[in-house]
TrEMBL record:
Family: Belongs to the DeoC/FbaB aldolase family. DeoC type 2 subfamily.
Name of the molecule in the record: Deoxyribose-phosphate aldolase
Gene3D superfamilies according to UniProt: Aldolase class I
Pfam families linked to this entry: DeoC
UniProt source species: Nocardioides massiliensis
Pathway where it operates: Carbohydrate degradation; 2-deoxy-D-ribose 1-phosphate degradation; D-glyceraldehyde 3-phosphate and acetaldehyde from 2-deoxy-alpha-D-ribose 1-phosphate: step 2/2
């Protein structure tokens, strides 16, 4: 966006959530997304190559950005302990290999993950608010969130009510995000970080992705996240580009940084590097940090580890040399 647009947004932010009508005017007053232009730019950035030394740095950075995830009905305490151990030491043969950013689990398994991770520095993220559909009464969603925080979750990944958003009930979505953020508070005055999931594969247009991004940031999101990983398409480069533009423009208008998390379908080192190039080009190098950019993934870590070994030894280890998630 231009500086003029950002100046206008700065002046309107204070009034945007004063009423349903004001919020609607603000969101529909955002500049539209040029679909062809966004997809073309994402494709161009995806062809960028990086030097060998930069690739080694990018692989370690990508490992540090992974939210290692298991969100299946068959999850067990044993599986979560194994995943948490892998998060702390992704390559047990190489102490120099960095740990991942977080382990992401269902709320009932937060305690298991927290106990296993201890003071390792790896965060525990919990999906909440009737993940992945978001179809539940608000009091149930808030109880779900509070239970996860009480169990020790460092981060909460909530899903928006896409039905409400798509029918223009923006204030309802806004108020729910605000309420979940309040439920993230701990008795000691700190708060779990809140990631807001849009399920972009159901939002239909890039304009809606931009509106959802601003709506979540207005409501106090610490991160905006593409997807649950349960709906296709999940994360894509053009969708992530639109979200990165949103956090960049929010920062220019407010001085506040908000993180971005693409999730679902990012499986290879080549894919991860494309996203890192985009982060640098669209939002800036300040976002090249696990505090501000994450990958929601499981199989991605294995490929990063294999490529890392190739960089160090000159040969691939193969999938049999990494743990199966």
């Amino acid at each position: 966006m231009t500086a003029t647009v950002n100046s206008r947004l700065s002046g309107e932010l204070a009034d945007a959530t004063s009423s349903d009508a004001a919020l609607r005017r603000f969101l529909h007053g955002l500049p539209g997304v040029d679909q062809v232009g966004a997809e073309a730019r994402a494709a161009r950035l995806g062809t960028r190559s990086i030097k060998t030394s930069a690739k080694a740095f990018a692989i370690d950075l990508a490992i540090r950005m992974v939210d290692l995830t298991t969100l299946e009905g068959q999850d067990t305490p044993g599986k979560v302990r194994s995943l948490a151990s892998k998060a702390m030491r992704p390559d047990p043969t190489d102490p120099a290999c960095p740990a991942t950013a977080a382990v992401c689990v269902y709320p009932d398994l937060v305690g298991v993950a927290k106990e296993t991770l201890g003071d390792s520095g790896v965060q525990v993220a919990a999906v909440a608010t009737a993940f992945p559909s978001g179809r539940a009464a608000r009091d149930i969603k808030l109880a779900d969130t509070a239970d996860a925080v009480e169990a020790g979750a460092d981060e909460i990944d909530m899903v928006i009510d896409r039905g409400a958003f798509l029918t223009g009930r923006y204030l309802q979505v806004f108020e729910e995000i605000v309420a979940v953020r309040e439920a993230c508070a701990r008795p000691d005055g700190t708060s779990a970080h809140l990631k807001v999931i849009f399920e972009t594969g159901e939002l239909q247009t890039y304009d809606n992705v931009r509106r959802a991004s601003w709506l979540a940031m207005l409501a106090g999101a610490d991160f905006i996240k593409t997807s649950t990983g349960k709906v296709q398409p999940a994360a894509t480069l053009p969708v992530t580009l639109v979200m990165l533009e949103a956090v960049r423009d929010w920062h220019e208008a407010t001085g506040q940084m908000v993180g971005v998390k693409p999730a679902g379908g990012i499986r290879t080192t080549k894919d991860a590097i494309k996203y890192l190039v985009m982060v640098n080009e669209i939002a800036g190098d300040a976002w090249l940090d696990p505090a501000w950019f994450r990958f929601g993934a499981s199989s991605l870590l294995n490929d990063l580890l294999m490529q890392r070994t190739k960089m160090l030894t000159g040969r691939y280890t193969g999938p049999d040399y990494v743990t199966v998630d």
